[in-house]
Design goal:
3 helices, 90 residues, globular, alpha/beta, three-stranded parallel beta sheet, 13% helix
């Protein structure tokens, strides 16, 4: 099953449309990009991760690049199961 969450009018994903409603319980993985590298939009991934995973049995994957290294990464605050990032030394 594939689900595309609606966007907010001000930009970014609508956290209320990210698998939390009963019609979306079949969704097993939610993937969200934390920071858009083209426009600098910072997604509200904390709100995306607040859906009760015991009910939905889903996992949350946050694409942390390019936010990692630019913003503090607090895994408890992000409430995600998986976090991916590309880190490099200069």
């Amino acid at each position: 099953m594939s689900l595309h969450a609606d966007d907010l009018s001000e930009g970014g994903v609508d956290p209320d449309r990210c698998g939390g409603s009963p019609e979306n319980y079949e969704c097993r993985l939610v993937h969200v990009t934390w920071v858009d590298d083209d426009f600098g939009l910072v997604q509200d991934v904390e709100s995306v991760g607040t859906v009760d995973v015991r009910v939905t049995r889903r996992s949350d994957l946050v694409d942390g690049w390019p936010g990692a290294g630019q913003l503090p990464v607090d895994m408890e605050r992000l409430k995600c199961d998986y976090f991916s990032a590309r880190l490099a030394s200069s």
